[in-house]
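ESCALATION

Customer reports they have been waiting on this structure for their group meeting. Please prioritize. Original submission:
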Amino acid sequence: MTHLDLAVAKGGTNCALHRRWMKCIAILGAGTAGTMMANRLVRRLPREWRVVVLDQDDDHVYQPGLLLLPFGQYRKEELVRSRKRLVDPRVEVRLCGVDRVAPDEKRVYLQDGESLAYEILIVATGAELQPEQTLGLMGAGWNESAFDFYSLEGACGLAKALESFTRGRLVVNPVEMPIKCPVAPLEFLFLADAYFTERGIRDQVEIVYATPLEGAFTKPVASAYLGNMLAERNITVLGDFATSEVDGEKNVLTAYDGRETNYDLLVSVPVHGGSALITRSQMGDASGWFPTDKHTLASAKLEGVFAIGDATDVPASKAGAVAHFQSDVLVANILRYIDGRPLEPAFDGHSNCFIETGHGKAMLIDFNYETEPLPGKYPLPGIGPFSLLAESAINHYGKLAFKWIYWNLLVAGKELPLDHRMLMAGKHAA
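Update from on-call: job pushed to the front of the queue and completed.
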């Protein structure tokens, strides 16, 4: 009988003796990507491996729901669950802040003074909001006339502000790219248009999109579609507006080129950066993003280190669907790494996003590193049921159904009938 078998016989798979003899995969972060990877790996790894997930608290937030919370479509309680309850019982969850990672030692140092040795490390630390990076944003008016909806606190505060907002100039402003869910600011605009229309005060509210992008979106084809939709709804687009400063006393945004725009209610999407942990550990680039091979999802520099989701510097959208498609590739590549086989460059940047357009409709876009969003049907060619680059009620219901899919299938690491690659079947030229 081996040491491993003896440990199992005496104390089960979670006993200390058993863990001592097991190889460790450490996952930094128990958000969407980290939870999904933990649940998928624990079912696929050889029996001498264990999975340890580290995060600082037990609150897992359904981030897509933050967009809908300010409009009264969700309650705060619906969007938060226990991290521990979302993972397979075989996964070890350590709720403790991480001081730093020492890749040369293959060890994670925790803030409680303990440390964890690993053979494989997965960086799933996500993206962090950095409103302090914009001069004046957190000064006068913050959480009074200026809010974000990318945090639970911000979304709750914005809900109250919208309830009492009856007239004036509403400005939505992503400060800079990249951001989590790059279509979310556009969705907020469309939902705000519908919200004020349903309240009968749309003619009293001016809606403005001040964006650092040249147009509505990063992909030219989708940008043209979305730009036309904004114009049809009488939403003004201020393109190439790179915010340098916020004056919360005068309610004015200033861009680096000197342009100014005023507001009565500001909906800011603050600067995003990689995790402070990655920066402290000197593992990231200047913005804290983790340098990652965009096809294999392995570290660009560190042996036995991989990354997934928002934490990476790959030129794909920072969205839950992307993390799901990446997880297919990353699970396979970690198993290849364990077996000593070459990694497969299989991730093509595939992303798809439902875009709420208001009045019970939504749009769907599907694209990757090389291919623009195209019209067609998804996921079944010619059948759908979802329409690409077109508004429909079915797309809206798909967006709403995602919450159930997220809690019950996606983060649980269960198989979904979606290919991680972008497929051209069912699509046609715009």
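Sent to customer with the following note: The first helix runs from residue 3 to 11.
Escalation resolved.
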